[in-house]
Amino acid sequence: MTAAAPEPKENMGQPVSRYDAVVKVTGRATYASDMPLDNPAYAFLVTSAIAKGRIDRFGLDDARGVRGVIEIVTYENAPKLKDSKLFSDGGYAGTTIQPLKSAEISHDGEIIAVVVAESYEAAREAANRVKVSYTATAPSATFDSPGTTAAAAKGQNAQFKEDAKVGDFAKAFDAAEVKLTAAYDTPTQHHNPMELFTTSCAWMGDNLVIYEGSQYVYGLKNGVAEQLGIDADKVRVVNPYVGGGFGSRGSMTPRTAIIAAIARRLNRPIKLVPTRDQGFTITTYRAETRHEIKLGASRDGKLVALRHEGAEISSRADAYCVGGTKTTTRLYACANVDSLVSIVRADRNTPGFMRSPPEVPYLFALESAMDELAVKLNIDPVELRRINDTTNEPIGGKPYTSRALMACFDEAAKAFGWAQRSPQPRSMSDGDWLIGHGCAATCYPTQMAPSAARVRLQRDGRTRVEIAGHEIGTGAYTVIAQTAAERLGVPLEKVAVFMGDSDLPPAPVAGGSNSTASTCSAVMMVCDQIRQRLFKAVMPGQSLTDRAKETVGLGQTPATQAAKSDRPLDLEKAFDALGVGVVEEYGEWKPEGAPLDSFRAMHSGHPRLVGGHQMKDQIAYAFGAEFVEVRVNRFTHEIRCPRLVGAFAAGRIVNPRTARSQLMGGLIWGMSSALLEATEIDERNARYVNDNLADYLLPVNADVSGVEVIMLSEQDDRINPAGVKGLGELANVGTNAAICNAIHHATGQRIRKLPVRLENIEV
Ligand code: MOS
């Protein structure tokens, strides 16, 4: 075992190498724009130079004169498309701002023309020659800009059902012995996955194939079909590999249906590769947020009152919000809780998911405030969390299915050396560097969604698993292969997995950290159907139905305890008894508490995620604790983060190697999110200024010298058959607070607005 492949603890699978490792490192993995097309035309987007107003006229003569130009599509000649509703209103779209529909402009960088040419270079050249005359009006850019409107999220966003409250906050806060009121800000951040936001569309008669990196092939397939007004069975979305998702490819963007419609009109495949800067406005992003936290506590550290008010930016058209108070009002024991989430509308593109959408900004506020309270109370911040730890969430009183928050704090504190910290700010230094140690909690809801799978087993043990899941870099191929191998008792090398294709059985959106829990539960169930058929063949009269959780190994010792074999079965004998060469099963799995329409919704591309605080008699979350060391230079104020240590408990860890990689990436992004990443907005023009990888700051290896990931053994039998809580979004939560808490410890300065850069250090 190595650091990259940690020794599995109790209830963990093997740290096998990635299923897709070789094709990826040898460059043989085909991403959407790598797919060969027959005589394609190339599209290039023209985007709006104003944020609000209208287009008066296009000057296209110059552009049309570029050799190789085939067509220039604007609102004046664009194919008609049906509107699509926002995903939270039961649609598929990440924005309802539908470009090329009219002369009106809704945001800077909106698509206003598509140039199609014989080559990428010709399309780009012509796009640069498109002249546009606008009548511009002053846009509202962000918080405090004139013209924005604010209203409660409840009532305008169907997925935000309730502002959580319990008890009497006002009275309890008033009477509290110790009080804290503090405001926190988080910045706009933009998706910059390695793979650009490309789309290729090819028609064969009435059938459309879309090659596009997606976290939800069934959603995209159904959404594009709806916009084109055709049967969803005529649309296929293919993407065996996705070069980074993180939420940016979870819902449909407007580019896809436009390109598909133009390809149909021209009767030619079209490939679109937008530029890096266009990615800032043609897809979604993490919007800026503001928070006010009020904490009331007794002198011995017990929370008696907690209020979290959050405000989030969205577009004029759409009421997107993340509403992280669902988590921050339930994390600690407190009898009097109040919360309010508001949406502030500006002339911006609609924001959307970005890794741990609710928890990243909202836990920044809460976990910073907890640290401030600890300082006020003169209580160790870890002990303050212990004092307020709980087995039941305070709003509905429901028990956590399992909760290892303090175990994570203890493990991470030990590994970090927290006991050696001297609590006084500015009390630790090394030459020119002030040293700060800080910590914060993380948590993320355990979510599941209906999923189908097809599994085929041959008599020699070769196994084929088909499921329209998504490999967004997480290790999905690997954990699905491991699950099938374990469940059927066949060697891992004999398992082939097929994903990223909407012609395969439907799987949910690869979002909300639900994929492993959902897809592995479905694969387990379908493998059990196969085992049952084989078992019946050799032992007629007996059934496994009443022993669904028991695994009957098929001729060899399964790798893990979870698949402990008590009745080995001879595969050859079973196939002979059945008289077949192949056993194939299809099955549809749904989690407990899934709504009645779940399977229908699954086929039509609507995920029905259940879990978190929305479970009936319980609440399910994964937990973690993060400790960081920062060093702040006394003279230059340069901030370094030499150590990130996290301990996490997330139910069964199917593969400690891929899990560690997810958690490590999360910690690094969490640090990046605190110290580097922010989209700067030109408030006069409501325009993103640093829309490129030179000016949008990201960490490099030299910024990340030490990351330690500790995975706790945890078994939770109350969540899903796979026992998985999910950890794709767990580790980048709380890191931002831990860093600001460490900066306070290093410098004595409390920073409540992200990102923190050297110009923000005043001491
Ligand atoms: Mo994630 S932001 O749920 O793709």
Structural overview:
The protein is of the alpha+beta class. It folds into three domains: 1-10 and 400-446 and 620-763, Aldehyde oxidase/xanthine dehydrogenase, molybdopterin binding domain (Aldehyde Oxidoreductase, domain 4); 32-138 and 191-282, Aldehyde oxidase/xanthine dehydrogenase, molybdopterin binding domain (Aldehyde Oxidoreductase, domain 4, 2-Layer Sandwich), CATH 3.30.365.10; 449-607, Aldehyde Oxidoreductase, domain 4, CATH 3.30.365.10. The protein is built from 17 helices and 30 strands. The strands form eight sheets. It has a seven-stranded mixed beta sheet, sandwiched between helices. A five-stranded mixed beta sheet has the order 7-17-16-15-8, with helices on both faces. Strand 11 (207-211), helix 5 (217-228) and strand 12 (235-238) form a beta-alpha-beta unit. The protein starts with 20 loop residues before the first helix and ends in a 16-residue tail after the last helix. The model is unreliable at 545-566 (pLDDT under 50). Dioxothiomolybdenum(VI) ion is lined by residues 215, 245-247, 250, 353-355, 357, 511-512, 729. The site of dioxothiomolybdenum(VI) ion has 12 residues, from loops.
Keywords:
globular; alpha+beta; 17 helices; binds dioxothiomolybdenum(VI) ion; Aldehyde Oxidoreductase, domain 4; 763 residues; 30 strands; 7-stranded mixed beta sheet; 5-stranded mixed beta sheet; 3 domains
